[in-house]
Design brief:
- It comes from Candidatus Lambdaproteobacteria bacterium RIFOXYD2_FULL_50_16.
- It is a multi-pass membrane protein.
- Keywords: Ion transport, Membrane, Transmembrane, Transmembrane helix, Transport.
- The chain is an alpha/beta fold and about 650 residues long.
- The protein folds into four domains: about 120 residues, Helix Hairpins (Orthogonal Bundle); about 150 residues, NAD(P)-binding Rossmann-like Domain (Rossmann fold, 3-Layer(aba) Sandwich), CATH 3.40.50; about 200 residues, Alpha-Beta Plaits (2-Layer Sandwich), CATH 3.30.70.1450; about 120 residues, Rossmann fold (3-Layer(aba) Sandwich).
- The protein has 19 helices and 22 strands.
- The strands form five sheets. Strands 3-2-1-4-5-6 form a six-stranded parallel beta sheet, with helices on both faces. Strands 13-12-11-14-15-16 form a six-stranded parallel beta sheet. Strands 7-10-8-9 form a four-stranded antiparallel beta sheet, covered by helices on one side.
- Strand 2, helix 6 and strand 3 form a beta-alpha-beta unit.
- Helix 2 packs across helix 3, helix 8 packs parallel to helix 9 and helix 10 crosses helix 13.
- The longest helix has about 40 residues.
- The mean pLDDT is about 85.
Length: about 650
Amino acid sequence: MDPGSYKDRFRYRFDNFFAKGGWAIFQTLISLYIASLILMGGLRILVHFWVTGTFVGSLDQLWAVWLQIMDIGGMENDSQSPLYHKAIGIATSILGLMLISTMLAFVTSVFKEKLEDLRKGKSKVLETNHTVILGFGIRALEIIRELVEANDSEPDSAVVVLSETDKEVMDDFFNDLLTERGSTRVITRSGSVTSPYFLRRNGVSHCKSVLLLNPAVSTASPEEKNQADYWALKSIMAIFAAIGEDTKNFPPVVAQLHYRRHRELAQAIAPDSIFVLDEETILSKILVQTSRSHGLSLVYSNLVGFVGNEVYFSDPPPSLLGTSFGDLAHHFIQSVPLGISDRKGKITINPPMNRPLQEGDELIILAEDDSTIKYYPEPPVTPVRRTVSNLKASAREERFLLFGWSHKSSNLIKEYAGYLSPGSVIDVRVKRVSDSVKKAFEAVQRRFPDIRMSLEAVNTSALQFPATLKPETYDNVIILAGNGDTVDRIDAETIGALLKFRHYIRKLEERWGKPVPTKLISEVMDSENLEIIQQTGVKDFLISNQFISKIMAQISEEPRVKGVYEELFRAEGSEIYLKPVELYLEEIEGQSIPFADLVLAAQTRGETCFGVSLHREESDPETAGVYIIPRKDHHFQLEPGDRLIVLAKDDF
């Protein structure tokens, strides 16, 4: 192989040396300064010796040269010197000026390069006990909003967002939409979330928790979802590689994966540390529950997340061991026990009222804040056992209209069919009946022959829409967020359909002279569109992105909360219902009833009451008539139409 000429080899080594970066350039500049001092100083000393024949004053000559190299003003020292010193001084100053200019350019370029690196978000994160979010987008924004609220009582907290998105884009996004941050610092970094190197640089090994955002939205194609799940699995493995095999130090990792097989794979990596959510199933269950119980969406909004009331795990004092679960509720003035976590970690929501509190049990308590949880050795309010009603809610046929079709429509219909009585109706109306939609619908239809189902296409642009659907003949009209390229486009179509339905209902109410009992329920993707939805008069809505984001944020702070939600959404478990107060008490009108008495009345039916919904206050913009965990000594003037908010096995 030809090694090249001497000139080529020199240039090759020269290029390699300067390719090392700023330190190599700095070394070169220092070397040039020293060489200039030696060259010009030696020249001045030699000339001085040639003229005077002595080396006396050589150090003074070197000092003069050094001053002229460092500062052109140093030439003033040669104002009385011989001409030859002045000539050498001029040459030295020009050389020094060139070196100083080069040094300034070097320093400027180093600072510029450093600022560019900072803008790119490549610097190392030196935080501990922080939250790491892997991914970027609306869901990251919603999660950070919840974490800001959760960290409100902390003097200092940090959230690190790692994404392949440019740092400047992320910073601009959060600066525009996240104006209230409290004591929480939001740190953005650009890099690969599947790289152990970048994960280590962002402190994943000593963070409090990790939230892994799936890059594929729920409306994406199956291929995109599949690829996104693989990406998420790779990210989990990268976290494992970054931390090492010591699973004891593995932080809680909260992730959302689309497919069950992928969720099982993720869970198997570190069963005690990885918490995977099934977004489709959760939203389907919530949408069904909220649509069948007017006002339930407000209750869930209060419970899910850190704004409002929260679920806490609390160790009861030893003095309460042996106390039945029913009696425990009366040892709090405001907080309400919802369930028990036994010594093995098994969670039971709304256990039997006679179930005694045992050693190693933790209470699952609904409270405004952990600081408000206070146990009383004796009940602060003694409940009065009032005359209990013998009424039971009777099963009836229900009629539901589902407008639109999305990836979770099949699950949604299955959930409805599991609740409804035989003979109930589920009508699905879509813009176009594709082969895939028809196939999925018929599969569900065959599975539930006792429920009358139909699928038809409708022209939403027709002047008669939605009058031709006769929405007033249904108990509930559910407007689903469909499929689309972006969240904004999906919500725009949802809001457009919602406006048409609402306009038709209002015109009908004007003609009838009385309210139409049909309830409109809408699914929204982006919480930024909440105000628009509220302007339509719809009180029951589900903000999909925000709801899942709140759950993810809660689990990142307290992983055991996931078990509580699993119990609430389990078909065989207790769920949240809003039931008429007439089912609990025979006499309600004209009486002032303390909340402690209502809790006791619900316990006679094996239910846990934790709130009240007052019909006459539904239009109140602040409370909407919903009171969650009021004080036990708070008195209510109840009337027909008011409801208790309870945990129960069924809605009868």
